[in-house]
Write a structure and sequence with these properties.
about 450 residues, alpha/beta, 8-stranded mixed beta sheet, about 10% strand
Amino acid sequence: NFRRGLDEFAVQKDLISSDDDADSLFPSSPAHTFSSPAEYDKSKFQLDDRVQFWIDYNRNGTMSEEDFQSTIAGVAGRFAAGGNDASQYWLRHISRTGYFFANAALGSVASLVQQKLHSDAEGEDNFVKAMATSGVILRLLSEAALSYEQDYDNIKNGKYKEPHDMYTINAQNNPLSFGRQTARFVAEAMGTMARRNRASEEDKRARIRAGGLYPEYYHTAFHYQTNGWMSRESANVYETSTETLFLGRQDAMQRTALVPLVAHARQQSGRRHGTGRTPLRVLEVACGTGRFMTFARDNLPPDSEFTAVDLSPFYLQKVKENDRNWRSLQRDRSIKPVQIVHAKGEDLPFAEEHFDAVVCMYLYHEIPREVRAQIAAEMARVTKKGGRVILTDSLQKGDRPVNDNTMGNFEKMNEPFYRDYIEDFLPRHFEDAGLECLTKTVLSSTKTLTFGKPL
């Protein structure tokens, strides 16, 4: 009977007229075995306890406003009971959320006023009004509180240090800087929301002159930012915009990548003794403004060599500024600046096995599936044997079941590859490149997957 079944399968497949149709009906894709990317992750990675925590949090979407308020109060109480260090962290971070909440309010009001002045009719699908409800706000505030608690637990348990700018007044952390960034954010938010509500083809495209250097997908004005990634305006306000969107928890979400990175650095440090010791080499692909790299530099040995790759010259300029600001806070003046490289992730200009660790932040949801595979192969190629590739990005289906039916709506923020991303089995790209799945963690709206290159 088994043999007859195989014969019937072969006959049926031969009857299909095209190879493409055959592949669509009889695919080798893991989707026919696993119901979601999260389920596939579960079969491949060692999951920390936070993965299940975020799956269960508001799993059925039945939490009330009172439940969210209770969650926030519970987190506040635990921080208060945790001693002076915990209380100081909590106070600084709720102040941080307060600042970004104020930005959100100002940007929302400005956008609504602008819409009233320029249109007699109000759009049915108004993003600002959809977000500005008490239930949504309380949910976001509860997730910010839980994110801070998870971040602090990592700090308390020695997985990485407190944020380097938490206790310092510097060029980027002072009242004048906050005021300037708020003004920039409000101006950018008005333009972003106007373009989002129009959603014209012109609004969706970035104007790039040096077209040959940039792949087609990069001509998208992602998030309806001013000229996508190719403007000084969007680079100047990007960090403020993303933190405002997440009410201050973006840094905490990014820092989940520090856990495997710092652990690997410590492991390598234990093996590097004597005069033959070589500095740790770390690459960040699609580094954006370089904000995460400042946290990485603050936690790794001072002689570590960092390289930042991005396609936007405007964002690479922000990398230089962030790196210069971080180095200004260090006692060791011999620390070298980060190396800046203008290149695309699918064609990295480095030798094979050059880096001990490669990090990629929030890139994969903005590129086509075939490019995800190409970049995974390139990151694997430039990573040393025994090294790490760390991918941090948005959640996918199954990571937070409560969001499964709505997370695709982020496509409306001019994210043309987002719906495909949330269905893509990401580990397959890295496994095909010869890497092994190691660990997974989740924090609110972010997941971090760690891969190892076999010795």
